[in-house]
Amino acid sequence: MGLIKEPEGVDFVIQSLPLTDKERIEISEFIRTRKLQNKLRIAKEISKKKRKASKIPNA
Questions:
Q1: What's the mean pLDDT in 47-55?
Q2: CB 23 within 8 A of CB 31
Q3: Mean pLDDT across the stretch 28-48?
Q4: 34 within domain boundaries
Q5: Domains contained in the chain, number
């Protein structure tokens, strides 16, 4: 695979616009919600595995 060169007059560096306070708060809330959902999903899976393991009779 070869090296891709930038065409003349084209710059591939992207400069993001600064976030507003409202956008920053919305993103923080979204991240907080997703982390909580992930924790709940993992806890549910662990609980499910424990219940399944407890149903297996001893050999």
A1: 81
A2: no
A3: 94
A4: yes
A5: 1
The residue type at 9: G
**Residue 32 backbone class (left: φ over 0; alpha: ψ -120 to 50; beta: rest):** alpha
Name the pTM for this structure.
0.56
What is the distance between the alpha carbons of residues 2 and 12, in angstroms, rounded to a whole number? 18
Is pLDDT at 31 greater than 90 in this prediction? yes
Residue 58 resides in a domain: yes
Structure tokens at 29: 């809330």
Range of the domain at 24: 20-59
Give the length of the chain. 59
> Identity (one letter) of the amino acid at 17?
L
